[in-house]
Amino acid sequence: MATQNGTTAANLPVLIIGAGSCGLAVANGLKRAGISYKVLEKDDSVKLRSDGKERDWAVACHWSSPILAELIGPEKWSRILEVQVDPNTPTPELDVGKVLNGATGEVINELPFPKFYRFLRSRLRALISESIDISYGKKLSSLSYADDGTSVTAYFEDGTSEKGRLVIGADGSNSKVRRLLVGAEKAKLKQLPFNATFINASFTREQALFLRSYHPLATVIVHPDNMMSLLALLDAPDADKPEGWRFCFYISWGASVEEQEAEAAVMGARERLTQAKEKSKVYADPLKSAHAWLPDDHEAVYWTRNMNWDPSLPEHAWENHSGLVTLAGDAAHPMTYHRGQGLNHALDDAGKIVKLLSTSKGRSQSEIIDVYETEMRARAGEEVRLSEMNSRMLHDFSRLQESPLMKRSLAKGSIDNPQSEPTETA
């Protein structure tokens, strides 16, 4: 077990702030390694609210799937089909995704998708939260560090506190831990000049079968008018009832930050739906029909900004207090979603943290966290920049073929710096 400044900290738990996919993956790995931990989550549950108004979404897991399998163990991994958007169809060893011209519907490119899992986020969290020690309603307010360097204490808005050997901030893109470490101004996300309106919807049997005929899971659609879209399956619980399937689709377009903020001040979900329907009129199928079939009072409409935060920038460096605190997942490196890398790098973080804490005998915890952060900043920082470049190119039809998505599909790393991917172990 690692020591810190010569003093054992094995009797104190690792405090994981946030019960998202990254935090829960770390917790599973630590539990399997016999390392004490506690997950502290600000919400009241990992479950979605029962009123059906809380947004759910799918997450892509591909090169990181062996890491997830190792972290959660064979029993949970044997049930991984349960959490996929299509829980009735096993994931093939190799799939091929289509990129369509949004104006004509013609296939521009076909991309190899090795072991392409799409998880419904709510079901993934439900599975990997099983048998995990989670305290709910814990909104972090501050951190303090022992003078002797052996412990850190997390304080919460409900007046409680927890002492641990290490705090891992896995509390998402608007991380409180990140704000505490670098200050509110430096922790702010970088807003990019494009935005999107997402829509979740079900359709008639015939309509659902038509939409899914393009690809069972997801179809990328890029429009010559410099718009980018995705049509994807969100949930198909019953293979024989297409009318019960849910789809998620979006149109993303360029807009200055100032334009985005001006629209956000006056547009709600109804106005965003009208706007998306209007933009969809220049599309061919399947996206054109998907929007046209929606009633004008459809409610599951979600407008989003595109934002990121690069942990490798010098101005984003943080003090880890001799290995007492660090960041992981979206708290450390939120990135744009157009190449589906976010969850994969979050799981890579989780795997590396668990491996270092469980195998680095003779090293101080300060050394362990320095090793983790050095690798994570370089790896994930590159992907933040690569994903931003990819997003910009996907919104510029003249540069589409040079984009990382078209050149590398979903592979880890860049053409100039390809990174080794883990192999299947479970």
UniProtKB/TrEMBL annotation:
Protein name: FAD-binding domain-containing protein
Cofactor(s) in the UniProt record: FAD
Protein keywords: FAD, Flavoprotein, Monooxygenase, Oxidoreductase
Membrane-crossing segments per the record: none
Residues covered by the FAD-binding domain: 12-45, 142-384
UniProt pathway: Secondary metabolite biosynthesis
InterPro entries: FAD-bd, FAD/NAD-bd_sf
Pfam family, any one: FAD_binding_3
Taxonomy of the source species: Eukaryota, Fungi, Dikarya, Ascomycota, Pezizomycotina
GO molecular function annotations of the record: FAD binding; monooxygenase activity
Record-linked SUPFAM superfamilies: FAD/NAD(P)-binding domain
